[in-house]
From TrEMBL:
GO terms for molecular function: 3-isopropylmalate dehydratase activity; 4 iron, 4 sulfur cluster binding; metal ion binding. Residues 19-471 form the Aconitase/3-isopropylmalate dehydratase large subunit alpha/beta/alpha domain. It comes from Sphingosinicella soli. InterPro entries: 3-IsopropMal_deHydase_lsu, Acnase/IPM_dHydase_lsu_aba_1/3, Acoase/IPM_deHydtase_lsu_aba, Aconitase_4Fe-4S_BS, Aconitase_4Fe-4S_dom, IPM_dehydratase_rel_enz, IPMI_cat. This is 3-isopropylmalate dehydratase large subunit. The gene is leuC. SUPFAM superfamilies: Aconitase iron-sulfur domain (SSF53732).
């Protein structure tokens, strides 16, 4: 009898958090291809219309509408949202918003409309509502779905045809990824945040450093992060090439979730807590790759180029391509310098900026806005600089207003906006003008990302606020 023995051998080795979620959601598996059950399906207006059209063409219906949530984020203007879709000037964005409204209505999917304070960026809203739980599988037609991994959920972006598949079947085809652990230990220096941690990892491993892997972030510096910091870190895991990022749930996770509208209650909560406690990677689990960083050595980080890995410490200098041995990297560096209008060897600190963007699913939560307001308090933004703060949801906006943060920011000259993706992506009226240089808290500094020929420098919210008040990229510790 071979098979019971095999079973025993499998059970002997500990499993990682990823493997535990995978096993618990596996519906079927055949020759390396698997079908996973989907616990939560987030929908936004940009990637969902064709999926619903496909569904209609095949006369299929939505298998589990109660496991989906529809939100409006990419194309919404960040002002006057009460006026609704009709007031959206861009015809394509307006059509997308109207289609998601009609589709969610037709299929009985819960939707938070534009102007509803619960609406906002999908990756901000689902955790805020308590819909993102440890151990879940979460998908969305959006690459930064990795954000939800902060709760110990297996969360990843999917394409339009996959959205249709999930709508119809509540399952997703998946291939098992390799496992990787990135441990960051030590205590972060004052002024250093989860964003700096993520940028430091990117600078070290590159934009394909985690490709083919699901990354689990571990170590004392990760454990010490708030849920918001953990979301920032997992948000950027996709920029490392990872299929998903994960952090094991712990007391911080429970404290964040308890009492949120869609979190389990009473007896259900107690059962859920027991289940979630068993999710952490076993002590003897084996990761295919293991990387370690010293958190106490991470400085504030700033990107200089056109990939998030082209990032240096605030006291660093823009590299000289001639000194880069790897030919492919040298070519990207040359192209980046040309696009960013930078000369080799230039110190990144001191570089004048035109615009500041504090927002995006990376850094638009209440702690991010508090960090920006702490810098803005009693200061004025530099002459000629345009700076905007865009909360990730209407509820973040309300919370900030109840703390008086909006008044501090407005008094300093910041523009206080309504929620959405905004200047993170050129799909709505918030854009850079050609040639403008922007200190940005978002996650992508690709060419033309924030507007045609716009130049993006990624950094933390406090660093972006510091850039706003000095008019230059600056070490916030020098303020
Ligand atoms: C529009 C959407 C498909 C896209 C993504 O998948 O990430 C956007 O959110 C982005 O950040 O580039
Ligand atoms: S905020 Fe930016 S990165 Fe996040 S979902 Fe929107 S466009 Fe994508």
């Amino acid at each position: 009898m071979a098979w019971p023995l095999e079973g025993l051998i499998v059970a002997e080795r500990g499993r990682t958090l990823y493997e535990k979620i995978w096993d618990s959601r596996l519906v079927a598996e055949d020759e390396g291809e698997a079908l996973l059950y989907v616990d939560l399906h987030l929908l936004h207006e940009v990637t969902s219309p064709q999926a619903f059209a496909g569904l209609a063409a095949r006369r299929l219906s939505v298998r589990r509408p109660e496991r989906a949530l529809a939100l409006f984020d990419h194309g919404v203007p960040t002002e006057n949202q009460q006026a609704g879709a009709g007031a959206v000037r861009d015809p394509e964005a307006r059509a997308q918003i109207e289609m998601l409204t009609a589709n969610s209505e037709a299929f009985g999917i819960v939707r938070f409309d534009m102007g509803d304070p619960r609406n906002g960026i999908v990756h901000v809203v689902a955790p805020e509502q308590g819909r993102t739980h440890p151990g879940m599988t979460i998908v969305c037609g959006d690459s930064h779905t990795s954000t939800h991994g902060a709760f110990g959920a297996l969360a990843f972006g999917i394409g339009t045809s996959e959205i249709e598949h999930v709508l119809a079947t509540q399952t997703i085809r998946a291939e098992k990824a390799k496992t990787m652990r990135i441990s960051i230990d030590g205590t972060l220096a004052p002024g250093v945040t989860a964003k700096d941690m993520a940028l430091a990892v990117l600078a070290r491993i590159g934009v394909d450093g985690a490709s083919g892997h699901v990354v689990e972030f571990a170590g004392s510096a990760v454990r010490a992060l708030s849920m918001e910091g953990r979301m920032t870190l997992c948000n950027l895991s996709i920029e490392m090439g990872a299929r998903a990022g994960l952090i094991a749930p712990d007391a911080t996770t429970l404290a964040y979730l308890e009492g949120r509208p869609a979190a389990p209650r009473g007896e259900d909560w107690r059962h859920a807590v027991d289940r979630w406690a068993a999710l952490a990677s076993d002590a003897d689990a084996v990761f295919a790759r293991d990387i370690r960083l010293d958190g106490s050595a991470i400085p504030p980080m700033v990107s200089w180029g056109i990939t998030p890995a082209q990032t240096i410490a605030i006291d660093g200098r823009v590299p000289d391509p001639a000194a880069i041995a790897d030919a492919a990297q040298r070519i990207v560096a040359e192209r980046a310098l040309a696009y960013m209008d930078l000369r080799p060897g230039t110190a990144i600190a001191g570089l004048p900026i035109d615009r500041v963007f504090i927002g995006s699913c990376t850094n638009s939560r209440i702690e991010d806005i508090r960090a920006a307001a702490a810098i803005a308090r009693g200061r004025r933004i530099a002459q000629g600089v345009r700076a905007m703060v865009v909360p990730g949801s209407g509820l973040v906006r309300k919370q900030a207003e109840s703390e008086g943060l909006d008044r501090i920011l407005v008094a300093a000259g910041f523009d206080w906006r309504e929620p959405g993706c905004s200047l993170c992506v050129g799909m709505n009226p918030d854009r850079l003008d050609p040639g403008e240089r922007c200190a940005s808290t978002s996650n992508r500094n690709f060419e033309h990302r924030q507007g045609r020929n716009g130049r993006t420098h990624l950094m933390s919210p406090a660093m972006a606020a510091a850039a706003a008040v000095t008019g230059r990229i600056v070490d916030l510790r020098d303020l």
